Structure formats: structure tokens, C-alpha cells
Amino acid sequence: MGKLEGRVALISGAARGQGEAIARRLAAEGACVVLGDILDEEGARVAADLGHTALYHHLDVRRPEDWSAITAETERSFGRLDVLVNNAGILTRGGLRDLSLETYRETIDVNQVGCLLGMQAALPLLEVRGGSIVNTSSVAGLQGVPGLAAYASSKWAVRGLTRTAALELGALGIRVNSIHPGAIETPMLGPVSDRAAQQYESVPLGRMGQPGEVADLVLFLACDDSAFCTGAEFTIDGGGLAGLRPR
């Protein structure tokens, strides 16, 4: 029997990359999965590949009405919700001098507000039996990153949302944790330059991470293996925050 047998998980940003890997990993452990994204063709294709225990629903995480619709569909189709993975996010570049207010607000709306709206929409279902919320932050939410002013700001905010939610929801049996990936080889990161590749090679494990490795961490936080973990921050960056390995 899988670690999530009989449970239902909702994953935002699940059409490709890290979110797709998470959906596939949770499904492999027995969960029914609901995939949300704005990439409708890709998301529907992943859900179809997973079979009758998966469904896709359009989800723009900035829109409360989209969250209401996807959680209502989750309840209609599967009758419950046990796991919410706030995975959707965008990576925008720009330092303080050249960052536009439009870009800043868009980044905050997707990465930070989307996370808040997801928790609010899922709460009525999660509080029935308790469950787990996994919020995707970043190593950029643990340190400053030149040239990523909007992105880093949004990911720092996810930490505050996560800890506050953990305090408020613990009595309901709902655990809330954040994950902090480093460089993960996904479409969001885009093409990796030679210079960037050398930077990733300098972390202790000497490489970029893979989406499946993040999915394994999410599985741990989604299932009972992490039953005493809440309000915590889990870094998955190949040791990058520890420092650069000696040459």
C-alpha cells in the first residue's frame, strides 16, 4: 500500500517541471491528484496519463474564483482533500534600479498571494480530517539574491505565511511546511549558461537538482512520515547554502 493511499492531493503549477513530478510521485504512492495550472493542454495531458485517479482543472493562482472552482471540483470528484501543494510560481529578473512596479506586483501576486489564496480555499476541506500543506519557497527566500528583487521578496514572504499558518492551523491537525529548492533543472529556470553551470558545479554535491528529488521531499511532508513536522523550512539545494566546496 502506498504512503498516500486513500488521500487526495491538490497541486498548483502541475502541468510541467517540478509540479508535474510532484503530481506523479504522489499518485504513485496512492493519492488521487488534482492538477491546477494555466497551461491547459499540458496539464490535461499529464492528468490523462495518470488515469482515472487524476484530474486537471484550469487554475490561475492569482484569482480567488479559480481557487474556489478547483476546490469545489476536488470535493465533487473525490469527496475530500488531504494535501495542498502550493507549487505554482514565476521567476522574474531585475534589480532595484531596473525592476518595474508591474513586474514586482505580478511576481508577488503569483508567488505570494497565490499561496495565501490556496491555503484559504483549501482550509474548509482540510479541516475536516486534518492534513498537510506544502508551500514552495526557494533558497532565495533564505538569502538575498542580486538581480532577483521581486522573486526573493515573494519567497521570503512565503516563509512568513507558512509559519503563521502552522501556528493557526496546528490545533486543527493541519501541518504547514515550506520547501526551499536551489537550482532545479526545470523549464522555469530556462537555458543554463556555461557560467551558471560552473556555479552549480561548485555546490557541495556538484550539480543541479532534479524535479523528482523535490517530489520525494514533498512526499515526505505530505505523508505520515513527517507527522511531527510543522512550521519548518526544508532546504533542498545540494548544500549550496552551506557554502562552496573547495577546489
Brief summary of the model shown:
The chain has 247 residues and is of the alpha/beta class. It has helices at 17-28, 40-50, 64-78, 101-129, 149-169, 194-201, 211-222, and strands at 8-12, 32-37, 54-58, 83-86, 131-136, 174-181, 233-236. Strands 3-2-1-4-5-6-7 form a 7-stranded parallel beta sheet, sandwiched between helices.
Entry keywords:
single chain; 247 residues; alpha/beta; 7-stranded parallel β-sheet; 7 helices; globular
How would you explain this protein's 3D organization?
This protein has 7 helices and 7 strands, in the order E-H-E-H-E-H-E-H-E-H-E-H-H-E. The chain has a 7-stranded parallel sheet with strand order 3-2-1-4-5-6-7, with helices on both faces. Helix content is 44%, strand content 15%. The protein has helices at 17-28, 40-50, 64-78, 101-129, 149-169, 194-201, 211-222; strands at 8-12, 32-37, 54-58, 83-86, 131-136, 174-181, 233-236. The protein starts with 7 loop residues before the first strand and ends in an 11-residue tail after the last strand. It has 247 residues and is of the alpha/beta class. Strand 2 (32-37), helix 2 (40-50) and strand 3 form a beta-alpha-beta unit.
